Amino acid sequence: MKKAGILSAVAIVLAALLVLITNGGRSEPAQMADGLSLEVHFLDVGQADCALVLCEGEALLVDGGNREDSSLLYSYLRDHSVTYLNHIVATHPHEDHIGGLQAAIAAAGVGDVYSPVSESDNGFFVSLKRRLDDGGIPLVVPSVGDSFSVGGAKATFLGPTRVSDEENNNSLVFRLDYGDVSFLFTGDAETAEENDILESGANLKCTVLKVGHHGSAGSSGYAFLRAAAPDYAVISTEDNSRYGHPHEAALSRLGDAGAAIYRTDKCGTIVFRSDGAVLTVETEKGAVEQSEASAENGGETPMYIGNVSSGVYHRPDCRSLPAEHNRINFYSLEEALNAGYRPCGFCKPGG
Ligand SMILES: [Zn+2]
Ligand SMILES: [Zn+2]
Q: Are residues 220 and 311 in the same domain?
């Protein structure tokens, strides 16, 4: 009996290995039983950035919020049983991106850390680097075109294409591809870096855009958004941002680009899940929305129309619809609510 037990255990391990080997060269993700094997969590860290990517048992952390977010980040990793971060991308040495990273290193083992620079005067960077040296964790300054994997997802660096004196425009920018679904992470890149990347001819088309520099007016230029054409745009910012983020001009351009805008200040933490074809989004303060990542909403009539500057949504026949350039279309009530929009007082669209 015991021997048979061991043999069947060996058989299971061999079968699992065989699955791994036969799937080794695939470009499409395996369809798992309940599907959604890629998760991208945009943590609500206020006026800062922090995203956790989980894919097929591997993990990537993109920025770590401010130092004051340390305990939140530590608990979040623990709560999601993340004991090893295969990679960390520290987009640039500003506190709101690297201030909390030491908490991640305390919570989990770390494979390597990507940074646009190997030296910086920033105090948070200096202490982070000391911590990496002490732990024998390599700091890697990647070049454009370099890539790494997170499970079956592939990350590729697109920028910076040249060294900028302005640290925001020296942000590591990369895309993450998983089947038909893709995420574009931009750090605090502004139009100068966006335009450099555009000129490089990189593929910017993405399903989800992590909006540059918390939605500042100097980021998310028209040309860049036209190339990215995101279905979803995520803005990481605090409520009543002290910097006025997101800026109305950036919101308006994102609305024009047809992106459904999700803001951490309104939605709380935002979680995308995908099997490489279907994408779902769930927010801390709202329900789940599901859509075909590749489906176009082109010919469909919107159920509601939002005003990107006021954050109010209307029935399509409302008398106080926003100007064309301020509109965002919603195809379900959930979509409007998940995006943090409030119902119009005149047309009373429900919700
Ligand atoms: Zn910055
Ligand atoms: Zn920032």
A: no
User: Residue 213: nearest ligand to its CA?
Assistant: 2
- Which CATH number covers residue 48? 3.60.15.10
C-alpha 78 chain-centroid distance: 20
CA distance 290 to 117: 39
b/e string for 235-273 if b means 16 or more Cβ within 10 A? Answer: bbbbeebeeebbbeebbbbbbbbbbbbbbbbbbebbbbb
Residue 117, burial from CB neighbour count under 10 angstroms (0-12, 13-18, 19+): middle
How far is the centre of ligand 1, averaged over its atoms, from the C-alpha of 224 (Å)? 19
Structure tokens at 211: 């909006």
Q: 218 alpha carbon to ligand 1 midpoint, in Å?
A: 12
Q: Do 262 and 234 contact (CB within 8 A), yes or no?
A: yes
| Euclidean distance between CA atoms 345 and 319, whole angstroms | 11
Predicted pLDDT of residue 300: 63
Provide the domain limits for residue 325: 304-343
H helices present in the chain, as ranges: 2-23, 70-79, 95-98, 101-107, 123-135, 191-199, 222-228, 248-256, 264-267, 333-338
Amino acid at the residue 23: N
Identify whether 104 is part of a domain: yes
Based on the domain organization, do 76 and 162 belong to the same domain? yes
Ligand 2: centre distance to CA 267 (Å) = 19
- Give the DSSP H or E segment for 175: strand 173-178
The reply to whether 249 and 113 lie within a common domain is yes
Q: How far is the CA of 115 from the centre of ligand 2 (A)?
A: 15
Q: Which residues surround ligand 1, an ion (CB under 5 A)?
A: 94, 168, 188
Give the span between the Cα atoms of 50 and 107, in whole angstroms: 15
* Residue 9 counted as domain residue: no
Q: What is the Å distance from ligand 2's center to 96 Cα? A: 5
Task: Looking at the structure, tell me whether residues 124 and 209 fall in a common domain.
Answer: yes
| Ligand whose nearest atom lies closest to the CA of 65 | 2
Mean pLDDT by 10 residues, the chain (351 residues): 46 43 36 68 98 97 98 98 98 98 98 98 98 98 98 98 96 98 98 98 98 97 97 94 91 94 95 96 72 43 83 86 80 84 86 70
